Here is the input.
Amino acid sequence: MDVDGELPTAEQVRALITEVASLRDKVARLEARAAGGGATAAAAPRPDAGAAGGAPDRADVIGRRSLLRSLGTAAAAGTGIVVGATVLGSQPSNANHIETAGGGWGHLNDTGTGNVSGASGTNSNPTFPLVILQNLGSAGTLEVKSSSSSTIASVKATNSGAAPGLSGESASSNAVEGHISQAGNGFNALYATTAGTGNGVFGEVTNSSSSANAVLGIHKGTGNSVFGFKGPGVAGDAVVGVARTGRGLLGVSDSAIGVQAQGGQAPLLLVPAGSPGSPTSGPHVKGELYTDSDGSLWSCVVDAPAGGTGTWRKLAGPTSAGTFHVLPAPVRVYDSRPGTFPSTGPKTPLSANTARTLDVTVNNSGVPMGATAVTVNLLLVNAVAGNGNFTIWANGVARPQANNMVWGGNLGRYSSLATTAISSAGQVQVLSAVQTDFVLDVVGYYR
Here is the structure.
C-alpha cells in the first residue's frame, strides 16, 4: 500500500473495492439472520488479515485511508468506481457517477473494448481534469450513446475556467468524432459553443508531414458539411481560414459551384496589396485575381515560367475607363438646329472657338451616372466654308490640344466617330473652329 497523499493504482482500487464488497456481503448476511431470529455466526477472518488471522499492519490501514481520501466518497458511499471501463463494487443507479470535491480525479485505463455509459461528474479543482481516459486497445476510450428518442446530448463538457470544455488527442486517428445515425434528426453531430473570446471548435494537426485535416466535416445528405454562423450585433467572422504556406480556404465541387459568396455589403472583398501594379514575383498561375494598393484589379492569364511572374491583364482601376457597353441603338442627345429633336440644349449654331457644355445622359440615352467615357458620333451641319477643326472632351477639365475632326473646303457637312471621357455628371464640351450646327449621337459608354 502507498502512503497518504499519493495517487492509488488500479490494483489498489480493485483490492479496496473487493474488501468493501466482502464486508457489505457479511453485514447483509448478519442482518438477514438477525431478522430471521437466527444466531449470529462468528465473523470470518478479514481479507486483509495475516496468515494467522491477525489484524492488518499499520501500513495497510494508512494505505486504505489514503485510497478513500484519493477516491473521494465513492467507495465509502457505495457508488462504485470505474476501472478498466468496468464498474466494480456495488452498482446502484448512479454507479458510474464520479465526483471529486478536492484534488482527486477518476483515472480510467481501458485495455479492452468495453464501453462506459451514463458517466457524469463535477470537479471544483481547477488544476486537474475530472476524468482522464487512456485507451491501450483497439476500441474507443469512451463511447456514449443516447436512445433514439433522446433529446439530450450524449456528452456535454462545460468549463467555466480558461481551459477547453472538451479536449481530444489522437496519434493516428480522429481526436473527436460526432455521429448522428437517425434519419430525420435535426440535431448536430458535434456542437460547440463559447461565451468568451476562445474558439467554439479548434482543430490542430501537429505533424508537419501529415496530410490530415485539422477540422473535417462530412455530410451525405442535403445539409452542410461545415456551417459557420455569426449572430448579429457583435463583430467577428463566421468562418476563418488562415494558412502560412498552403491555401487559406479551398472549395471544390464535382458538379456544382466550388465557392459561393453572398453579402449584404458585397459578396467578395479582395484585400489590396501593399504596392501598385501587378505582382512582380512568385509562381503565379492563370485564373488568379489580384488587387493592388491603388485599387486596380488584375487577372493572371498565363502561368508564370520558371523564375517569372506570369502574364497579367488589368481589368479595372481608378484610371481605366472600365468595360464598354454598346447601346442597342445610337441615341441622339443633342441637335443645335431649331425645331429638331431632342429639345434639350441651346437651339443655335456653335459659335467659332466657343465651347458649349452638353449632357450625354438626357433623352433616356442609357448612359448611367458613374460612367467614365462615351463613344459618340459627331455630325457637323451647315458649317461655313473654309478650313476648320472640332474637339470634344470631358466637362470640367482643360481643352486638349488634339482634335477629333479636321477639314477643309466648302462641303459644309462632316461626320466622325469619337470616344471621349465625360464628367462625373455625364457632361462633355464641344468646340468648333468655325460656326456650324452640330449633332451628337451616343453609341456606347464605358463603366
